[in-house]
Amino acid sequence: FAEQLMLTQLREQFAYNRWANLRLLDACEALSRDDLVRELGGSFPSVWLTLTHLYGGENTWLARWQGTPTGRRPDLEGVDTVNGLRAKWDGVWQQQCALLDATSDADVRRVIPVVLLSGKRLDQQLGATMRHCVNHATYHRGQVTNFLRMLGANPVPLDLVLYYHEHPPAD
User: Fold this and answer.
1) Which residues, at least 6 apart from 54, have a Cβ–Cβ distance to it below 8 Å?
2) Which residues contact 83 (CB under 8 A, 6 or more apart)?
3) DSSP code, position 121
4) Which residues pair with 149 in a beta bridge?
5) Using CA atoms, how far apart are residues 52 and 24, in angstroms rounded to an integer?
6) Cα dist. 166→15, 114, 127, 154 in Å?
7) What backbone phi and psi angles, to 5 degrees, belong to 116?
8) What does pTM read for this prediction?
9) Are 20 and 93 within 8 A, CB to CB?
10) DSSP 8-state class, residue 130
11) Model confidence over 31-76: pLDDT tens digits?
12) What pLDDT, in 10s, does the model give residues 136-149?
């Protein structure tokens, strides 16, 4: 029963993650190109660099879940607009959904090999890496929300409680 509950929760977390990403992209779409790339500080100093890092993280974790321990580069050559990024992200989202639909209760506890960008190698449960992916996105969405405030733009509420208000959790 615990594995089944974990899989249900993972699917809910990824649905929330997509909902929040789409809302954030909608808010960022209103920015001028100058504001999108304006360096404001932080680990990824602009809205654009933070958004592309978010996409890149989801893209590389997806590759790891599909059997490539090193992940994959973000494939964003020629993409320089929020709409272009959204289109690329839609492809990752479709693959994430297919993977989650095909994942069994036992799969979430399966250990997969991971090679981080630093070269560090580790083995970790599939479910743990999936939870990390959603947590990583939440962290960086918070940074973009702060950037939007700094730019005088309207940030959008991304709280999980609001998502659950619109999409009540499974019983």
Assistant:
1) 21, 136, 137, 140, 141, 144
2) 29
3) E
4) none
5) 12
6) 12, 35, 25, 21
7) -75, 165
8) 0.94
9) no
10) H
11) 999 999 999 998 999 999 999 999 999 999 999 999 999 999 989 9
12) 999 999 999 999 99
pLDDT in tens, 4-37: 788 999 999 999 999 999 999 999 999 999 999 9
H-helix or E-strand spanning residue 113: strand 111-115
Give the position of tokens 């615990």.
Answer: 2
- The CA radius of gyration of the chain, in Å to the nearest whole number, is 16
Burial of 130 (0-12, 13-18, 19+ CB in 10 A): buried
What distance lies between CA 119 and its chain's CA centroid?
22
C-alpha angle 153/158/159, rounded to 5°?
135
Between strands 111-115 and 121-125, the pairing is antiparallel
**Could you tell me which of 95, 128, 136 has the C-alpha nearest to residue 9?**
128
CA–CA separation, 106 and 103 (whole Å):
8
